[in-house]
């Protein structure tokens, strides 16, 4: 890569080099500690002799804007005052469109911006210390070897065949999903799957039925595509199917572990939901974000496995099982949607990184994913039990847990009126991260409660953390 300097004519060459380098350093365009090319190389790049470059370097070194390090080279030595120049404010024709995006902020984004507390009950964050580094390293090494035959080539928009086949087998084994590799599309996380589906299914003004309370990132994504949201209440069995509007084109649900309340959708409610979708011709998105971890009862059928009319798109993710940074999501797509999704994926970002795909395929095929799920499931079960003991014991006068059979968060609902936002603020002062469910509601009256994630907190830390919460509650009651 060449250093961007422009030489005009053949006069004052040293001055030209000096002036442009000093301006770049003092403006912050060249950052402190950045290496500059050797004088001979820069002279070749500029098409001039080495002498004027050496003279410019010498002057800059004298002024302490460059510093030589023996055996390493010459580096920028920017003064503390050097900062990138702020661009002049300019009225933009798109100002209203840019301002519109501010309305789509949601509590999950706010949570990500906040620093983690010592004892943090944030939801959706897997147990990082238990990530199977050795298994993943072997999978990545195998992926590097597999990549040799495919470098410099773009890949299939739906994903490499090996990963699609591995995902199809895994989804069938773990969740009973009825699909094959040809109907699997690999995405950059489940969120991209939702975005692609919105692109092909929605037009401005189209109605989308969403759970209330529900996942705000999905809700706002649909709204960003111009959809008209229809928040539908949930009860102990899941979304109330008869309340879904007749003009709904898309229905978004989390049947295995309702987000954020946590209860599973009953079999009768699943059947009612499928019947309602058939009646109005709507596509259902089944977001199965964390049901890999189950603790009690027999495994429930996925909604997709009960669908005999090709109306359900099953969306899954490995982010909640492995780590969010990998951004590996997928969807099992009914035939009528497949071609449109291939087209829009090609227009969007073509395909997911193939190195990660090869690694994930090897990781699944070697059995490492199932081993990790079993190991982590045991860890989460212990943490879940510790959480249940705390809420069944000292915290019982204030909260009750919503029954949940899967995932790695539970929701605690207040038994009587309670200032949850105050509790959250006071808990942060004693280094406990608590998270209100208020921001997940749209039209339904928000119940006072907390989302209690147990992926990011160690088992032995749960009791001490809940003891701090108990002390705050006792103070609030006085």
Q: What is the average of the pLDDT values?
A: 92
- CATH class of the largest domain, named Alpha Beta
CATH superfamily of the largest domain: Type I PLP-dependent aspartate aminotransferase-like (Major domain)
Give the strand line-up of the largest sheet. Answer: 5-12-11-10-9-6-7-8
Biggest sheet descriptor: 8 strands, mixed
Low-confidence stretches: none
Q: What Rg, in angstroms, do the CA atoms define?
A: 28 Å
How many domain modules? 3
Notes on the protein architecture:
- The chain has 15 helices and 16 strands.
- The protein has 478 residues and is an alpha/beta fold.
- It folds into three domains: 13-76, Winged helix-like DNA-binding domain superfamily/Winged helix DNA-binding domain (Arc Repressor Mutant, subunit A), CATH 1.10.10; 104-128 and 371-477, Alpha-Beta Complex (Aspartate Aminotransferase, domain 1), CATH 3.90.1150; 131-366, 3-Layer(aba) Sandwich (Aspartate Aminotransferase, domain 2), CATH 3.40.640.10.
- It has an eight-stranded mixed β-sheet with strand order 5-12-11-10-9-6-7-8.
- Helix 2 (39-46) packs across helix 3 and helix 6 (133-147) packs across helix 12 (354-365).
